Amino acid sequence: MTRLKIPEWVTSISVNNAVYKILGKGCKVLTVSPNVDDIQFRNCTILLPIKVRVQLKDQTIRKLSFILKTQNNRKFQAKVMSQLKMFFREHQMYHNILPKLEKLYQTVGKSTNFGPRAYRLDYGIGVQYILLEDLAARGYRNIDRNVGFDEVCLKQVLKKLAEFHAASAVYVEKFGMFSKLMTVGVYSKDNKLILQELNDADPFMSQLRRWRVGGQFHGRLIEKEEVLVDLMLENHKVKRNEFNVLNHSDLWMNNIMFKYDAFGSIEDTAFLDYQVVKFGSPAIDLFYTILSSAQMEIKLTKFDDLVQYYFYHLLENLKYLNYQQSLPQLYDIQNALNANGLSVKMSSGSELNKPVNPNEYLDIPKWINEDYFRPIIEKDVANFASIVNFTPVAATAPGENYSSIMVRVVADILLKDGSQKQVSYILKTMLESKAEIFSTTNLFSKEKKMYEVHIPQFIKLYKEAGVDNIELAPKCVHIEVTPERTTLVLEDLKRQSFQNVDRLKGFDMPHIRRVLHKLAEFHAASAKNFELNGPYDEIYAENIFTETIRPLFVDLYNHRQEQYFKAMRTWNLAKDEIEKYIANYLTGEENFDASVKVSQVDENDFNVLNHGDSWSNNYMFNYKANGEINRSIFVDLQMCKWGSPANDLWYMIVTSASLDIKVKEFDRFIQIYHERLVECLKILKYGKYIPTLKELHIMMLKYGYWGPITANGVLAISSLPTNKDASIKMMAEPGPEGDAYRYNMYSNSIYARAMEILLPFFESKGILKGD
After folding, report:
1. Are 376 and 478 contacting, i.e. CB atoms less than 8 angstroms apart?
2. Sequence-ordered alpha helix ranges (H) in 602-735
3. pLDDT tens digit sequence for 731-768
């Protein structure tokens, strides 16, 4: 076999600047050794490994490895690379675009890499090049392309792809559209002739006729052969009204490397070769990656599941990065796949209704099955005959719920007349972990009674007053209490297009107005019900601040302090201000005493049944066609407590008002709530004293320590982007792992920005210490 000629530029390579960028100036490059024995002549490129020995300031020797990627100067390959601008595009990606995409994640407290680091040689070598770190030297490796990715590997690829796509969508929001080099890519009319050469279908078509089932496709495909490139050009046009991302466009096995930990699990995934990136539908990468690289047995059978897995991680990362546009829906991705060449298969006749699982880490209890749900559905659905398909998935993402297991159950059912329909429910039951801080409270007893007794009472009060359009909570279709657990089965509000607001962004003014009105409606009905029926059950006299739970709370508080103070010192506040706040922070015991004190009921005040957990995830909305809010509703009634409405108001405003209005519109929020409260109390013919707006403001100061309690606790949790490890147990975990978790929580930029305005606000109100 003829050995290809080693390029002349091999002898002129100098990498001092690259070494200095890695190790800092002051070190000395001893040897630079291009490994010509391992040089790879690929179709259009040359890959040359380079080994470098460096002497550090302390005289120790460090070895570095690079890969120099250059243009293959054979005539046709050089023509392809030059006309399609492959090196110019890849240079832009490695040196400009990828660092910005990675920085988007860094600004929200997440570290991710999309490929090897890129460097520059000290001098030009007469050809286009990219100098990259050698990932193989760091333990990364490819998987045999003849074997293909199994499901575990492919999901890691799709997870990284979702990160990449999400960052590219946010990039456009922050920096503007990518250049024509990226938006048009290689698929332009100017490149039509060379694309026809590269995509000559004759060899494939001649081979197709020899395949066992190829004959039946040959006739249909031969008709498209002449217009193949035209179809490609048309398919790659950017549809501006759809969700678009920067596609890698060549993401197959050879361009993906994995790093494994000591136990053989994938630790990281890296992409290579960004020469043909293209802005457009994510369907481009999904097709290319799954169809080119998945093992045969999962390529089609798992296609829909893999798309769904990608979609969940795409949404997760868009939210993490505070994407401002409308979030894509699963059917948007599936429609894009349909439009780009493959019909997504339907399951059991349902129309793209396969449930998305937002938490693959949730271990769904085995008792949540068809047998358990059959009598529930039979009671709820007229003419029910049987269950055809039964799918339980997590109802919430990791970090969205800390006190319960939430499962969405989707069932395709057969009716007695032979027709089919799909139904879904939300099952809520106790966490099985006894380590959870809520396990010793009356959460489920409270919620059970709210659904069985009080919500029906409140709705009845409004109906008797002639108001039929008040909604407070979803319909509860089943309640079961056993020695092991309490279980609630609720209607699935997503069936009526209800959804949460992104908790990381919070409520804007239209949403917070609706929430304040909803709180006022709930509070007014609870006060009227008290007037008519007397005190509520003793379980509503207590919240989580009880003597039983004191040791757990104090331990949790004390465990967090070191990392909390460490994180505070990174916030954008004056150093002397931060040290003053730290010096005046309460101890765990002092904080618990202040929390107990602010939870006590003054019967001379105006009191209501508080929701008790009124943050953004516990409100759902549906919308009119023009985007205006149509309906709003509470969920999660586990924390209800009798006391001052200041509890719910502080809790909701601190956790859930968007940052731009959280403090700026605070007094206006109280006024909006008060106006609706007075209106509802008058509708219900409340016979006791109604507080004035001034008295309500005084009440907000009297119970003001609810602000710092909420800011130091729930706000930190609700500001943390989705995290599979999120749990109360993790917050109290001793040791390095727990410390890292707590530090990430309190240094998270979303939380830090909120506390930078809340701490001075609390101080100005005189409520920082609960005196």
Report:
1. yes
2. 646-656, 666-683, 693-702, 706-712, 714-718, 728-732
3. 767 778 878 888 888 998 899 999 999 999 999 999 98
